[in-house]
Amino acid sequence: MLDDESYWECFDNCGLEGEFDMIPIDFSGKVALVTGVGDSDSFAWHISKGLQEAGAKLVWAVHPRMLTIVEGFLKGTAQEDIEARTLRRGGGTLAVEKILPCDVSFDTLADVPEATRTDRRYQRVEREHGDYSIEGMMKKVGEAFGRIDILIHSVAFSPEITKPAWEVSRQAYMTAMSISAYSLTGLCRAALPWMADKPESTSVVSLTYLAGERVVPHYGGGMGSAKAALQIDTKQLALNLGRRNIRVNTISAGPYASRAAKAIGKIQDMINYAAERSPLPRGIKPEEVADACVYLCSPLASAITGQVLYVDCGYNVMGV
Ligand SMILES: NC(=O)c1ccc[n+]([C@@H]2O[C@H](COP(=O)([O-])OP(=O)(O)OC[C@H]3O[C@@H](n4cnc5c(N)ncnc54)[C@H](O)[C@@H]3O)[C@@H](O)[C@H]2O)c1
Questions:
Q1: CA atoms within 13 A on the CB side of 18
Q2: Which of 173, 219, 256, 315 is catalytic?
Q3: Would 28 disulfide with which of 55, 193, 194, 232, CB 3.0-4.6 Å?
Q4: Domain segments of the chain: what residues?
Q5: What's the gap in Å between 298 CA and the centre of ligand 1?
């Protein structure tokens, strides 16, 4: 036990005397491009709120078919819409600088098949907003803001999510891979001119799930394979883009009843199962995923890249 005088001597010598600096999470002047907002339950919605609370300007790249719906969530006057937009910290309201359509299945407009190109909704989006491919969307962000500091990949889809692995068609498997995994590579490549070689590292964060490493019943349609691909791509891209001072990480979130997760069919069973067996015996909250994401994008994580960060109440460590 130190006496009073020795205690204060130690304190004086550790550099903490005088004014304390705040924890350095300040995204003022930074631009965060967020994909995957579908509604106010989306992880991407909560992540956006967290990034804005830390000072970032938000740009959303939204599925072309979801554009009007998402705009509705930002304008809704019902009490629940207002509450969904209220920031948790700082007392403000969710504000998005720009919303652009983007179907992450397509790197360029030339990749869009005839059937999609001539779909009425896609035609209207193209008329009103122009190029909705990854390349077209990214160019608009780059030209409008001149920089991208944070890129959030929060997109996943399989047309056969309810089918067990052995029944999944080749086409559905490839679609799941393309939209849920390859799109990370496509987005990173297109964002490179606006993210690379900054004095302070820029950050890419995606969302994955334990089914990319272990067998999770009900998580079908090739989505487990897509998450496995997403996780190794995260590590590979961390190496390639680390040379350009870009960090690439992924968050493995516990089960949560978003729109995409409800399509799995058994999501509430999955949530209950994990909650009963997790070290923290409860389900996760989307705000907890948002906070972890803010941390990964911040200077506090400046040496962290190529990692899978589990935000799952510890469920992944369990053997039985
Ligand atoms: N909810 C969970 O239990 C859970 C757990 C772990 C990881 N995740 C992951 O979190 C991410 C976000 O999912 P969520 O749970 O917030 O559900 P969500 O339905 O809110 O988000 C999925 C988004 O993907 C978008 N999308 C699908 N296909 C697209 C395309 N071709 N182009 C552009 N956007 C497209 C949808 O419009 C939607 O906004 C996904 O990667 C998902 O796999 C979810």
A1: 4
A2: 219
A3: 55
A4: 25-314
A5: 23
